[in-house]
Amino acid sequence: MSQSPRLPYGSPTTLSGISENFALHSSLESFITSRTLASQKAYPHLADARSPIRAKVLNRDVAILSSYHHVRQILCDDTIRPCLSSSQAYDELMAPFFPPPNLLLLDPPDHRVRKQIWLEKMSTLNSNIQPLIHCCVLDHFRNTPSGSLIDLYESMKSLSWRILLSTFLHREDSGNGDDIAEIEALHEVLLRGQFSLFPVSISTPFWRSPRCKGLQARQQLQSRLHSKVTLGKCPFAVGDPEDGQDIANHLLLFTCSLAAKALASLLMAVLLDLFLFDQAGTPLSAKLRSTGDPKQRSSYIQSMVSEVERLSPPVVGIMRRTTQDVVLRSEGDIAPPTLVPQGWDIWLYFSGAGRDHVAFGEAAECFVPGRYSDTQSPQQEGFAFGAGAKTCLGKGLIRTIAMAVVESCLGQAQTSESTNAPMIDLQGDGGELPVGVQGWLGWQPNVRPEDWARDMKQLPTQRPRKSIMVKIQHQLAA
After folding, report:
1. What is the distance in angstroms between the CA of the first residue and the CA of the last residue of the chain?
2. What whole-number distance in Å separates Cα of residue 84 and Cα of residue 107?
3. Which of 145, 211, 289, 427 is the most exposed place for a label (fewest CB within 10 A)?
4. Is pLDDT of 329 > 70?
5. Residues 110, 128: Cα–Cα separation, whole Å
């Protein structure tokens, strides 16, 4: 007999919503885990640890989904997607800072048409970008003396800015370093305004709110980017004035601070896994350098990057708003369906879904670098780039960048500038990584929520709260 749908577990009030808002900004992982444990205590019959949880954030009812099955339904089920809106969910957070039309804020059917246009634009870019990335990586590390201690996240953020601006704004041809530095600075102001806990635009002769500063930064960036598009300083051909504005709008997204920090988060996790993850006493970098078959080595690197995406997605989740009542089925229909009423927000927690034991087995929380290299038993991917019709446009580009960074560090880059280029090694500073950071990387399972909250920041992107210092070593390639 079919079971009646029920609301997500929890009954927050407006007063509790205030505390929940600040708790969520502090640590999503701790917030969700604590709400799950509280729900299990209140509802002892709750069998699924990843059942949807109800919260109250910014005075809105929110259903938080952290099971792989539920997240995939929202993103890929053709009967559910028409009942959801991206634009309404992001209207207050994103639209004022990234003016429509753009792919992030579009809903079907307009999204489908415009995405096809941009897939064609990006296809040419993806096929030609690898040599440029190799050059960016080699130059970045050449400028860091061997034996130096570096803050790995800050180093990767600097590299990410260089790669993104070189890719989308022909940075190397600009001839104006001050102009590029100002673009980075304006994007930082925009991001602070976008994620300000004081979401009001106020401007006085003596003080301007972060949101006000962010909106002014957006106007300056739009003007600069549109000028660069007009001057041909971007990789996309301009057909007419309307096309030029569309390209400028999307360049604002592609080069934003959030994109640079997300890429830095991914590259940091990849390099920590490559150089510091101890697999039977041997780092992965040594294993890959000793692999003689280039195809086998490339396949293993791809698998490792996919595993990082699953466990450590830079952006921990996305939002949708229901335009109609939505009913979500449980895995195997073993639990009652969940009703998400019209007008609610749905938060898809990718970090939790990527560690769902139902989808990924007993080792769901563990870093298994070869998980995706077995073509005979294909594994489900994580949600670092979403899934379904609104899969991130930059998925192919970001994977190409991650692969190229690993190849450059291993001494496998194939460019004119790679002749006599050193191999790169990173060594820890002698101490163990914090427990929460090890949990983020999948080196230690069952990390307590309080450890995760203490050691990791999750908004706007995931990264360790304290600097992870590593020593860089240059070695001449054999």
Report:
1. 68
2. 9
3. 145
4. yes
5. 29
Separation CA 270–CA 409 (nearest Å): 11
- The answer to whether residues 463 and 414 touch, using CB atoms and an 8 Å cutoff, is no
451, 439 contact by CB (below 8 A): yes
pTM score, whole prediction: 0.92
CA dist 344 and 325 (Å) reads 9
As given in the structure block, the two tokens for residue 188 are 């930082």
Contact between 429 and 470 under an 8 Å Cβ cutoff? The reply is yes
What count of other Cβ atoms lies within 10 Å of the Cβ of residue 23? 19
Residue type (1 letter), 196: S
Cβ 409 vs Cβ 424: under 8 Å:
yes
Say if residues 410 and 380 touch (Cβ distance below 8 Å). Answer: no
Which residues, in sequence order, are bridge partners of residue 469? Answer: 151
DSSP string, 16-51: HHHHHHHHHHH-HHHHHHHHHHHHHHH-TT---TT-
Percent of the chain with pLDDT over 70: 87
Amino acid in the structure at residue 455: D
Query: What sign results for the dihedral spanned by CA atoms 145, 461, 276, 450?
Result: positive
Strand spans (E) along 272-390: 278-279, 282-283, 317-322, 326-328, 338-340, 345-349
Bond preceding residue 109 cis, omega within 30 of 0? yes
Which residue is associated with the tokens 């079971």?
Answer: 3
Query: How far is it, in rounded angstroms, from Cα 433 to Cα 425?
Result: 18
pLDDT at 322 over 60: yes
For the beta sheet containing 149-151, the strands, ordered from the edge strand earlier in sequence to the opposite edge, are 149-151, 469-476, 422-428
In whole angstroms, what is the distance from residue 57 CA to residue 226 CA? 36
